[in-house]
Amino acid sequence: MNRHTAGAVIGTAALLIALTGCTASDADDVAAEESPLGAYLASAWGSDLSEEEQLEKYEKENTEREELVAACMNEAGFEYIPTSNNGTVVFGDDDIWDPDSREWVAQYGYGMVESPGMDEPMPAEEEYSDPNQDYVSGLTESEQAAYYEVLYGPGIPEEEMNEDGSYEWDWTQAGCHGWAQHEMDGENPLSSDEHKPLMDALNTFYTDMQVAPEFTDLNAEWAACMDESGHSGFVAQMDAQNSFIEELNAYYESQTEWVEDDPALAELAEREIELALADLDCREKTDYRDEQTKITAALEEQFIADHKAELDAFKAAAEQGR
């Protein structure tokens, strides 16, 4: 059974961001300026495109996907009008996320409990009008049920869902939308079968990099600094942030109802800032970011040398598919 592989690719991107010490809003800059692999992956991520070009690419892909959905629905005996409103592309503001700034860290820590712009109201969205609503309203109740099952697939059985409500997406069980996405993925080098061995190798590479022996001395120096600051028990630099993620997750999982201005959450925010400042101090004392970038670049250069042909083919396919 074919499985959707976008999640694995996203995992690769997330690991790249984590290992270079940047946030999602900084990912494009990392790929373009610091990561040797960025020149290959940027073509597929679209980070080498301007915001206008990215928006144009998104709209083109959405149009193609909706036309495929319409063809699928028509073949099943239903009418379907392609819609142009299937989500919004949001471009992040790199200027508001600066976890290497002492002023920023002193206010937000790692940006988990509090983060820039979190209290600002969401921009008003245009009211969405489904062009298929009149047609669906004219169907009987049983016909509507059949319509939506063909469009989206049957509901996910409870036994196939994880405790957090997530599940492994199977395009064969996702109706015409799943089929259309699979057809689109067939042309997307990030999720095509042709480049799956390379994507698997990338995921393994970035996962293994977290414990690469090249980082042993640097992490040991950082951990010793953290011990001196009163924050012991860490082995690698990411352990500090991960430890707070676990603590914050435990807090949210224990909540049965939302408490406005909860003192317990405020206390967590204070501990986050204290830990993040100690982490920042030790990164600065050990020149962690610069050393990490050098080590990461060297490891990536070796990966490129080992997978040059596959990376060149991947880059060419990504550029051709635009």
What's the topology here?
Elements: H1 6-19, H2 27-34, H3 38-45, H4 51-75, H5 102-108, H6 133-137, H7 141-152, H8 175-185, H9 196-209, H10 216-228, H11 238-254, H12 263-285, H13 288-306, H14 308-320
Write down the overall mean pLDDT.
82
Tally of helical segments: 14
Determine the oligomeric state from the structure: single chain
Radius of gyration: 23 Å
Strand content: under 5%
**N-to-C order of helices and strands:** HHHHHHHHHHHHHH
* Major sheet characteristics: none
State the secondary-structure class. Answer: mainly alpha
State the distance separating the first and last CA atoms. 28 Å
What is the approximate shape? globular
Q: How many β strands by DSSP?
A: 0
Poorly predicted sequence stretches spanning 5 or more consecutive residues? 1-32
- Overall helicity: 55-70%
Notes on the structure:
The protein is mostly helical. The chain contains 14 helices and no strands. Mean pLDDT is 82; it is low at 1-32. It has a domain at 6-88 and 125-209 and 290-320.
Summed up, what is this model?
Helices cover 59% and strands 0% of the residues. It is mainly α and 322 residues long.
Descriptive tags:
322 residues, mainly alpha, 0% strand, globular, disordered N terminus
